[in-house]
Design a protein that fits this description.
Layout (H helix, E strand, L loop, with lengths): L1 E4 L4 E5 L16 E6 L11 H15 L7 E3 L4 E7 L4 H7 L10 H9 L7 H4 L4 H13 L4 H7 L13 H14 L8 H9 L4 H11 L6 H14 L3 H11 L4 H8 L16 H12 L2 H16 L6 H9 L5 H17 L4 H8 L15 H17 L2 H12 L3 H10 L5
Helix pairs in contact: 1-5, 5-7, 9-10, 9-11, 11-13, 12-13, 13-14, 14-16, 15-16, 15-18, 17-18, 18-19, 18-20, 19-20
Protein name: Avh348
Pfam families: PexRD54_WY (PF22748), RXLR_WY (PF18634)
Subcellular location: Host cell; Secreted
Length: 416
């Protein structure tokens, strides 16, 4: 038997005859290559990284699926029978020269993972998912950075398909395994940042919706969507369209945007506001004739009718030009309930000032606090006073005398 030792982990035998399990001798041209997974804590000439890539390349080159591997627990190895003549040229390309034995281990890993420096790397993207599961285990033993694995699998290429890609899902599994190692981490945020380096927002929107259907990846998908809303203007309409196509309810979208519950804003809504995107989505979801009331009831139930700061949210919506009509309608629905509850403008002022003790009329006229209180004072006056009183109150606000306007409106309650 001609036994040529390739490495401490990989051995190739060319056997003129070998009795298999059936007892029949194999033809002389057949060979067996064995990948030995030793567990001895010793320094190997070939890193686990190269072992993984070499094993995968053999499987890929032969068109074999990793399920064809036969495990021999007593030998502590994984053997692939029926492998044709070993490619010694390939072995020479994969194995390191003696001169490279003293090179830093981290350098070995990086060189083996950078496409173009390893002849095996190009084949990795063509392997079967089951073969990569084997690679994941070996990469994990080397504590290989997930970004390097991502690159060697060519997942960062612009043309790479991520949606329903089994290799991408297996890479995510590797990230999970890596993140569980001691003193190692790779967060969902790092995943999203890595993906955005090479993939379009449109592709990531599609990917995020696909991942939401996988329970184990739902949190990642929804974090990705929040990240895109905050950081990418072009992705916002794409996400709204994707939610609409998936028939997501306003409640489901609200949970995506606010997984831990929402706090009512106390300022204008910026372009990347999650509230703003939610309002835009509800405009596409509910029928036009019931949209405003449905939106109002949803938010009233979500925050309770006792939280008067919801008036600030409606004022912020009204101050967005594209949602001005919706904001005005929501504000009117809210103010009508306050009038029915006999909330005077003075009472509303005291409640909106809590808990900060804000002197509302000392703020700028464009501030949501100022505008909300002004709007309610005028609304209240229109409901309880006549046209002349309403004209007077409007004039006082126009002449920068809001406190006088508030006093006149509040006194209307005494005449009822």
């Amino acid at each position: 038997m001609d036994n040529t030792k390739c490495d401490g982990r990989i051995q190739c035998w060319g056997r003129p005859s070998w009795a298999g399990r059936s007892g029949k001798a194999l033809p002389p041209h057949m060979a067996m290559c064995t990948l030995i997974l030793t567990q001895e804590p010793q320094v190997e000439r070939m890193s686990l990284l190269n072992a993984a890539l070499f094993a995968i390349y053999l499987l890929s080159a032969l068109g074999c699926d990793a399920s064809a591997l036969t495990n021999y627990p007593d030998q502590g190895r994984i053997s692939l029978p029926n492998l044709r003549h070993s490619n010694t040229a390939l072995q020479r390309r994969v194995l390191k020269s003696k001169d490279a034995d003293n090179v830093d281990t981290k350098g070995d890993i990086e060189r083996a993972y950078i496409p173009g420096l390893s002849p095996i790397a190009g084949a990795v993207s063509k392997i079967s998912p089951s073969a990569q599961k084997l690679a994941n285990k070996l990469w994990l033993q080397s504590k290989t950075d997930p970004e390097l694995v991502f690159n060697v699998l060519h997942l960062g290429e612009a043309a790479a398909k991520l949606d329903n890609n089994p290799r991408f899902l297996l890479w995510l599994k590797y990230v999970d395994m890596y993140a569980n190692l001691k003193f190692r981490s790779f967060s969902d945020h790092q995943i999203v940042v890595l993906l955005r380096k090479s993939h379009s927002d449109e592709k990531l929107v599609t990917l995020s919706q696909s991942l939401r259907r996988i329970p184990a990846r739902k949190n990642l998908a929804e974090m990705m969507q929040r990240y895109l809303i905050e950081d990418s203007a072009s992705s916002r309409p794409l996400l709204i369209a994707a939610w609409r196509e998936s028939l997501e309810t306003p409640d489901e979208v609200f949970k995506i945007l606010y997984p831990n519950g929402a706090t009512l804003p106390a300022d204008k809504l910026p372009d990347n506001s999650q509230f703003l995107q939610w309002f835009k989505y509800t405009e596409t979801y509910w029928p036009v004739d019931t949209r405003d009331l449905s939106t109002f009831k949803f938010l009233e139930q979500k925050f309770g009718d006792s939280d008067m700061h919801i008036a600030l949210l409606f004022q912020a919506v009204k101050q967005r030009q594209e949602l001005e009509t919706l904001g005005d309608s929501l504000q009117s629905l809210l103010f009508n309930t306050w009038v029915d509850k006999k909330f005077t403008p003075g009472f509303v002022q005291s409640q909106l000032a809590l808990p900060w003790g804000i002197a509302i009329f000392k703020l700028g006229k464009g501030d949501v606090f100022y505008r909300a209180l002004e709007e309610y004072t005028i609304h209240y006056t229109g409901k309880l006073g006549g046209k002349e009183v309403l004209k007077t109150v409007r004039g006082l606000f126009a002449n920068d005398k809001p406190d006088e306007a508030l006093a006149i409106a509040t006194n209307l309650a005494r005449n009822q």
